[in-house]
């Protein structure tokens, strides 16, 4: 009978994705006695990463290490994952809800005629059954899901599940041979995005700007605060549509959904579509000159005033704090 | 070139969501349905590819009566024909069942390109395009920002965390679209008038050959309970002059909220 967990551990350029380590940690916490947690790596030259994965103490590590995985293709990764499932017959397959997993995990699920539940932000447990909890309507409500299948795929939202302490390296490493299917589309090049220093969906702190920054010439004011905090820059839809910044920075409906520890909404009034994308942030700070802006209803801390006056002072105050600590 | 576009009718994104009495769905009372905002990019891309390569475009929607206006919206923007997949068995399908119904409607159509929004606003699952590509046994590329089609091949750019990937593949392909790919056009009055006169083909589970294989006991994922997110804690406005406001804020974030 199917049992235990298979966790797809994503790597890019030889680095494990933190969100994948979160997923592996959560599987370890969920596994009951006798249930195995198998980590699963795919790539070219990734076997060396198994030692890194082992620190999170999976029962074993499957490695599909082959030249055919050097660049990403949905079909090759689907074939590898389907093979891994066949080999360890898990009850649950976990992956981080990243661009890569969003692309190929549903395809694996369809191949194996198994259900898939995406962007999960909490797991309830009923006996040995997991009940995934996920946002719907871009976070305006949550759904608790029941799964009626021996195998299911669950992708976990980055930044929500804790990373376990590293332990004594554990888990036997085993090679997984994958016969490649025909590949009809594949990645031929990867280009780093311009401007984005820290990825929005994985950032612990986000500083986002809206109309209140008055014009695109003022992004450096927010970027300085980002640099002081180690934060990612975000934007409201209004300023993206106005052409002040590229859409990759947009938070909210038609943009990105984020759950950082700390979110600064600078000159953002708080349209329902924006709130949808960020209201699961742990702590929200709103800075807006309109005391009646809806964003204040969602903010833990609010300051009524001019963003361009407040943010530079905030930046130097944050720098002072960091110098003293 | 034959092009299909899958669209979803979803509650207007301005809607304030309330939970229905049985807690298994949202309360649809007074809800206005619109084309899912991500699907607007899919419709636009279908129209652009047709303008470039010729051929015809078909829009497909799965769901109840709410689909009619949404299909007419696509027709008004310039899509040639519309198909409504409608059956009592199609209520509350999970993502894989949804993909199975769509695949049944698409598989024998000889389509070169199938465009979808990268997710439906509402379920926000972001799964159907990839599942559909698997069921059709064809190429896929998701979260696309740029697309060029030449003969039987395509080049696409897709967004990943902090980077863009260039993808090359062969048709037929399922392409999931997102903001940045194009600027969706809005229907003009002439288009709206013409769309009213067009017929919408309706296909049920039997016509699609999926009777008994989707819906009912085939649904493997169900919503047990829906709820509103927990209320955010009562916030506080920090008063005083700017210098003291900023000092107090940083101190609270550090010692009270422990996030700095």
Descriptive notes:
The complex is a heterodimer of chains A (325) and B (260). With 325 residues, chain A is of the alpha/beta class. Chain A has two domains: 5-175, Rossmann fold (3-Layer(aba) Sandwich), CATH 3.40.50.620; 200-324, 3-Layer(aba) Sandwich (Rossmann fold). Chain A has eight helices and 18 strands. Chain A has helices spanning 18-30, 50-54, 74-88, 99-111, 219-229, 237-241, 272-278, 307-324; strands at residues 5-9, 11-12, 15-16, 37-43, 60-65, 92-96, 116-120, 122-126, 129-136, 141-147, 152-156, 172-175, 185-192, 205-209, 232-235, 262-266, 283-288, 301-304. In chain A, α3 (74-88) packs across α4. Chain B has 260 residues and is of the alpha/beta class. Chain B has two domains: 2-218, Rossmann fold (3-Layer(aba) Sandwich), CATH 3.40.50.620; 230-260, no CATH class. Chain B has helices spanning 37-53, 67-77, 95-106, 128-136, 189-197, 205-208, 242-255, and strands at residues 2-7, 9-11, 33-35, 56-62, 81-85, 113-117, 139-150, 153-160, 163-170, 173-177, 200-203, 221-227, 236-237. A nine-stranded mixed β-sheet of chain B has the order 9-8-7-10-6-1-4-5-11, sandwiched between helices. In chain B, strands 2-3 form a two-stranded antiparallel sheet. In chain B, β8 (153-160) and β9 (163-170) form a beta hairpin. The longest helix of chain B is centred in the N-terminal third of the chain and has 17 residues, at 37-53. The radius of gyration of chain B is 22 Å and the shape is globular. The N and C termini of chain B lie far apart (55 Å). The mean pLDDT of chain B is 96.
